[in-house]
Amino acid sequence: MRRLILISLLTLLCYAPAKAANADSSKKNKAQLIVLPVVAKSIETSWSFGAAASATFHLFKHDTIARTSNLQALSLYSIKRQFIVAVTGTQYFKRETYILSEQISYSYFPDKFWGLGNKTPDSAGESYTFRQYYFTPHLMRNLGSDLYIGIPLEIQKVLSVDYKHGGDFDKQNIAGRRPYFIAGLGLSFTYDDRNNAFAPDKGYFAQVYVNHFDHYLGSDYVYTNYVIDLRKYITIYERQVLALQAYTFNNTGNVPLRSLASFGGNNSMRGYYDGRYKDKNQFTIQAEYRLPIYRRFGAVVFGGVGDVSHRISDYRLADLKYSYGGGLRFALNRTERLNLRLDYGIGGGRNHGLYLQIGEAF
Question: Does residue 289 fall inside a structural domain?
Answer without folding.
Answer: yes
